[in-house]
Amino acid sequence: MQQTQSSGLGHGRRLVLFPVPLQGHINPMLQLANILHSKAGFSITVIHTKFNSPNQSKYPHFKFQPIPDGLLENEASTTDALSLLTVLNVNCVAPFRDCLAGLLSNVSEEPIACLITDAIWHFTQAVAHSLELPRIVLRTSSVASFLAFAAFPLLRKNGYLPKQDSQLAAPVPELPPLRVKDIPTIGADIPGELDDLIEGMIKETKASSGLIWNSFTELEQPALATLQQDFGIPVFLIGPFHKYFPASSSSLLTQDQSSISWLDKQAPKSVIYVSFGSIAAMDETEFLEMAWGLANSMQPFLWVVRTGIIRGSEWIEPLPKGFMEAVGERGHIVKWAPQQDVLMHPATGGFWTHNGWNSTLESICEGVPMICSPCFGDQMVNARYVSHVWRVGVQLENGPERGEVEKAIRRLMVEKEGEEMRERIMCMKESVNLCLKQGGSSYQSLESLISYSVIILIILFSHLWTRLRSP
């Protein structure tokens, strides 16, 4: 846990934050808000869409401002996240501007130091500029995956996109160590929506006043150096966010605490924990291959099967009759789990993950090696780094075929290769602990961010005062 005391620099000043309404984006934004409130004393206002609105009861010390998002019933779904984000970047412009202007004009509140928005909200840069308010960007992915997105125009120009099946294993020299299959596309990768979203995100991030990252310098030093050179704005790697406080959750889903009582009965480092996050979906065939791979491995498993994750099914109906009876106490299936607590548990020895950045970072923080099954977007880049750069996991290259699943679990949980991965990731865990302590990289970066947030407010007031005095 991070050891800083509150600097108090933020007292009498307010930050306005605007998270993207997806589980993997809401969590880090609210964690960041907690950090800046508790460590610097900033007051916090969270603007949010009505779709997937955060649970306000968990944050009584924040103020929340809902805005209409204009989503039609068929649009209010994470099934097609790309279309959802494209629509929201249009629908929210006027409501967001009105809300932010109202907050700025409210003289009964503390002056607003700056706006912090998710990088995906690219429209907010123009709004902030028009209201003469500094905007700092939070990016909820790894630095490496952000650079891959930033390289999209070059990758299209050089013929890597759209991806061709015959070229998937080919290296991408422009983005080592990525292969063509690791380029972070979403859906069918037809030029249009994705390119427009990425172009807006990159362009308006470069125009912002700074970048905050839920990562730490020791993990991504080469990518950080490239980012600083290419973007030319202040960058603050202050993560891992969730390690500043005891395990807590801003989950939009109800957590099943039976996960922990079941883990309490298992041997140390014996359990493979399986969870593919809040958006990923699979077909019935993939689900059954996963099930038989887990069963045949003879390893205890805790499996999160989210409601609706299997296309065409409500929950685990496709499991063969008698499957759970055959597995017995060796397996436990829940709809959602308290992931941080699960990864910290002594019985957890491996994590089969979709490699969303939050999950990847949480696994690193607890020294748990991974089996990687990326689904889309930045997960592809994260999985490549886990398996081939940091070498703390194995990647299922061809999907969840039961024989490959069984083999991967044995490699991770039983064989010497897995023990070597565990040793490497335990070293990474120690790096996390050091970066958060006084004098560590994230500790120092957070102090710089707090000072910077105050300084840009002073500069803003200075400019306004100069203009008021001008004839």
From TrEMBL:
One of its GO terms (molecular function) is quercetin 7-O-glucosyltransferase activity. Gene3D superfamilies: Glycogen Phosphorylase B (3.40.50.2000). This is Glycosyltransferase. The keyword Membrane applies. It comes from the Eukaryota. Keywords: Glycosyltransferase, Membrane, Transferase, Transmembrane, Transmembrane helix. Belongs to the UDP-glycosyltransferase family. The chain crosses the membrane at residues 449-466. One of its GO terms (biological process) is glycoside biosynthetic process.
